[in-house]
Design a protein that fits this description.
202 residues; alpha/beta; disordered C terminus
């Protein structure tokens, strides 16, 4: 047998033995693979763009949006109040500290929902709860909230009401202010000056 192979085998055994002596650092009880697989397929991990828009408009104090795209994409366009934790930084101590904030509902966003879904899996594996993915991501946000498509004239009332909400939300996010008035049902829109409107897409 080659001497180099013997030396390499001995070195690997020494390194493996050394790993056994290193104390295990585990800040969170990690989810088992079986439990993780079960959670991955649950639709309850998703929130839709309408729910996120409503929470932002109502200034929900429990909402924390986490944009997992690279910082240059985040700098170009994101949702109000979102913080940037790129996907490759989800497992860092700083991200772990943010995700470990009690009582907040963390909503991961990306261009679509693929990277956000990956961030969700990593965070869930690390033992975090109250984490969600915005279904369809920012591309879906642009087509449902910023540029909603009007329903057909024969559409049910629920579709028309949803469109009215989206129209109001679109005005809010592109430079209008929405107030809910109690006497009338619906959304009242008040224009306000805004230095720059949200432009473009993802």
């Amino acid at each position: 047998m080659n001497k180099n192979y013997i030396l390499l085998a001995v070195l690997l055994l020494v390194l493996a033995g050394g790993l056994l002596l290193i104390p295990e650092k585990n800040n969170h009880p990690q989810l088992s693979p079986e439990d993780l697989m079960w959670d991955v397929v649950q639709p309850s991990k998703f929130v839709n763009t309408d729910q996120v828009a409503k929470m932002i408009i109502e200034k929900d104090p429990l909402l924390q949006i986490i944009d997992v795209r690279p910082d240059y994409d985040y700098a170009e366009f994101t949702l109000p109040g979102a913080i940037n934790i790129p996907l490759d930084s989800i497992a860092t101590p700083l991200a772990d500290q943010i995700l470990n904030t009690e009582d907040l509902n963390m909503v991961f966003i990306s261009d679509d929902d693929i990277k956000a879904d990956q961030a969700w899996v990593l965070a869930k594996r690390m033992g975090h709860n109250n984490i969600y993915v915005m279904k369809g991501g920012l591309n879906n946000w642009m087509s449902t909230i910023i540029n909603p498509e009007p329903p057909s004239q024969s559409a049910p009332v629920t579709e028309t009401e949803l469109y009215e909400f989206r129209k109001g939300a679109s005005m809010y996010f592109t430079g209008a202010e929405i107030t809910i008035s109690e006497p009338k049902q619906g959304v009242e829109i008040t224009r306000r000056k805004k230095s720059t409107a949200v432009e473009g897409g993802c």
